[in-house]
């Protein structure tokens, strides 16, 4: 994201204004608007922009979103039937594309294709042959909504008046096909590790093979001792990762000492110990999920300044968030106004309290 401008011009009467001063004021106001969207709302797809593929057509629903630079991008619904090679009109003085994500690293532009509907195909230059949307063209590509910045020079200067010279910047929303390999995949909020989910008693153990209460306890012992190391590691990792950002005191740390006794099999393990671990795993699941949904960074890097990825054409269904769809990421403001941060903090405090009050000896049945 363009750095925040710490100053702006203030004009005085009878001042002769330069293009630099006027453009600085415009840039200042633009950055205020863009930063307000990203810092106070968030970034990503806000509404719509779902799509589906039917035969050789891509149907895109209307919608809008906010890029990581704070640009608002909106597009109407459309049905695309063809594509043509696309060249970004924004080119720097060095001949490379101004938009960094489209640079190929060799001084040129990545291979991009613009999607066209039937009306756009009819208006094409006769010398341009549109490409059908077949498996060859769509394979390995991601549907991307791009906010094109097209400078158009004004050439209406006359002998005595050049007030209309300059440039108009046109902002056009384009639906593009971009190679998956050229894009940076989104790291979604991961679900809690599957390994902390304790298997049920009957999983892999036929009930007909159990002949005594000792056999039943043996099954529970196997389940608990297999899952406990993973659960303990996951608990410690969760507190290490999220404790600082939740302002948890140093003394609020997971007490795993009593659980470690179960690994050694003392006391004898049975169903109550299995239920205890399941409760702890569920509490950890809820805490980690809540922490993951919090805004991870106050000032995240701007990785998609003027584009939004809508999905991988090979694997996406057009609306489910995947590694190549910019699902909306709310700003940290929500964590404060909706109390999400405090709610997650209390989930971790609850988990710490549960661990602090574990007493595996209370479940000892050796004397009964």
Secondary-structure map with pairings?
Blueprint: H1 19-40, E1 42-48, E2 51-54, E3 57-60, E4 63-66, E5 72-75, E6 78-85, E7 112-117, H2 118-122, E8 131-132, H3 135-138, E9 141-154, E10 166-179, H4 213-242, H5 257-263, H6 271-293, E11 307-312, E12 329-330, H7 333-337, H8 340-356
Antiparallel strand pairs: 1-4, 1-12, 2-3, 3-6, 4-5, 6-7, 6-8, 7-10, 9-10, 9-11
Count of separate DSSP helical elements: 8
Detail the poorly predicted runs: none
Assembly status: single chain
Most strands sheet: 8 strands, antiparallel
Helix/strand/pairing category:
alpha+beta
Tell me the overall shape: elongated
Q: Provide the helix percentage.
A: 25-40%
